[in-house]
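Practice problem: Arylamine N-acetyltransferase
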Amino acid sequence: MVDQDLKPNGSAYSLSQVSQYLSYIGLNESFHPSSSPVLDLAYLTTIFQAQLTSFPYENLSIHYNPSHSISLDPQELFTKLITSPRRGRGGYCMELSIFFSHILRALGFTAIHYSGVRNRNRTNGVPQGNYNGYVHLVNIVTLPNTTLQYVLDAGFGGDGPTFPLPLTEHIIHHNTIGTQEIRYIRDWLPDQRFRDESRGALKQWVYQYRNSPEKEWNSYYAFVPEHEFTEQDFGNLNVYLSECKTNHQTYTILVIRFLRGEEGPQKIKGKLVKVCKTEEERTGMLKELFGIELTEEEKGAIKGWASELKGE
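Answer key — structure tokens:
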């Protein structure tokens, strides 16, 4: 008999919690480690796309929260996402990707690590200018008995990859939704000064997207897979991202959900984005479209914040 309290591969989550997770995302016990599933690309893709369509990208805990802060503690994340009676919550990049990393380890994936990511700000919807400092993260997974690495971005929101993206250069992939295409290239950052590869300098892996084959490629974010980040690193970054008043996360509310197709939890058919003008409209939309119902205390926490909607 499998010990349901076991926490495999350094995961914070037990096999009992894995069962709760699988039930929440709509997958049966055949995906549970006790059923000895094959941990291949098809399995990983199903888990990843069910994850994307179950938990919206949202930063509400920064705004509708008396403390205006975010916890990255894995057990607190599990409570927020899975066991809280107020279902429908998601999180922003560090919440979702750290949560998902612990889930993957509990499912049996052993070769998995975090990589810190720099992105570019968008102007009129197009990434432009220099890359920011580290503000994001991805999980990098090597499947058992293979050498090919896959990048899983569980918390990027719109224009992020909707399936495990192989870490290979210049191969163009259809991104599930519409006509959007994505790929990786390797390149130096514009302001990267150390470029001597003979002395260990590393080019960045740059994630690019374009909304149709006729469009120009947009370079959106960059990372170095060989440079492993720890949860302590992201704990430091989380303070900046969630509390610094000049960071866009603290003055912009974002809620984006990928929509699940009729074929099953692993099929993504679109994403949901809505613009609101008043607090009443926004909190009503959160309940109606996302199933997120805020308490009166949470609603009141946004008063006086830059992100408060006043109907102007």
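Discussion: The mean pLDDT is 91. Students who identified this feature from the tokens alone can consider the problem solved.
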